[in-house]
Known about the structure:
The chain is an alpha/beta fold and about 325 residues long. The chain has helices spanning about 40-45, 65-70, 70-75, 90-100, 105-120, 135-145, 165-180, 190-195, 215-220, 235-240, 275-285, 320, and strands at about 1-10, 15-25, 30-35, 55-60, 65, 75-80, 155, 185-190, 200-205, 210-215, 225-230, 245-250, 255-260, 270. It has two domains: about 5-220, P-loop containing nucleotide triphosphate hydrolases (Rossmann fold); about 225-285. It is built from twelve helices and 14 strands. The protein has a six-stranded mixed beta sheet, sandwiched between helices. It has a four-stranded antiparallel beta sheet with strand order 2-1-4-5.
Amino acid sequence: MELKTVELTKQYGKKKAVNHMSVTLNAGVYGLLGANGAGKTTLMRLLCALQRPTEGRILLDGKNIEKLGEGYRDLLGYLPQGFGYYPDFRAIDFLRYIAALKGLEGKAGERRAWELLEEVGLSCEARHRIKTFSGGMKQRLGIAQAMLNDPRILILDEPTTGLDPKERVRFRNLISAFSKGRIVILSTHIVSDVEFIAERILVMKSGQIVHYGRPGEITSEIQGQVWECVVPAGHADRYVAELNVSNLRNERDGRTVLRVIAGERPMGNARLVEPNLEDLYLYYFREQPAGGRRARGRGLSEDASGAEECGRDFGSDVESQCEGGDER
Ligand SMILES: Nc1ncnc2c1ncn2[C@@H]1O[C@H](COP(=O)(O)OP(=O)(O)OP(=O)(O)O)[C@@H](O)[C@H]1O
Ligand SMILES: [Mg+2]
């Protein structure tokens, strides 16, 4: 299977949200990494045929997806960014509804809905109304609905938003098990997510792919440009304002260790270190100094907080293991 964009362009007024993009995707998990406004959602909507390109085309195995029409849509699963839910639906009813919309009715649809609820860790909440769900639980239900029709092409727009660390691991395992022989594209700002889930990373900036590669290889571009420097803690702010700092660690002895991206040795005691994806992200997307300050610390990756523990051991007979009423 080959999904290919050829000079794909989507223009809103003067703004080219996707700008003459030509990229070829084969089976595998692709991480689409980019800052706000880079064009990730626009690209995904184009790939889902929800929007028409201003210029260029998208080919599946050489055939224009516009000509494939419904046949193409049947192959797709899509989690939109900020997915709209039906608050009064119970989770299982929502999945039954989506299954029916996708033409998956009867026992097969029912079985797949329950399977997916289990896979995203929501089997105990199957009969709870969506309005009672936390943000992360809604997100997991969104991931389940995108996978209902066993799509050959799965497109997930910021699927890990709101997931706690445990759920991120579950998501990662779910995607890697699912991805065999399929194309999975997921967008995120969370560098560590693509680093571990994706086989290929597409770095998107201003509507174009500015970098493409395997997580291990992609950082080679900034090899020799990432440094660790030790400065007195009291002076750290000044260095952060002046340098491109991807991380900052306060030591107990009153010193601060800065991770700096710079073409030349930024200070006498700087030592070269191996670049990681977060450094690369900052290299491409560093904020311009505003009032003399740049992005600092690990603020570019999201540290999830408030991990919730379900702690249940889900077996096959999930319903019988779930306690409590059907409704909240
Ligand atoms: N319907 C629209 N009308 C006009 N401009 C739009 C529209 N949708 C997107 N844009 C513009 O296109 C650019 C790309 O937007 P897009 O939503 O694709 O970015 P993104 O990478 O998904 O950002 P985010 O990380 O914030 O979700 C932005 O400049 C945005 O303002
Ligand atoms: Mg977006």
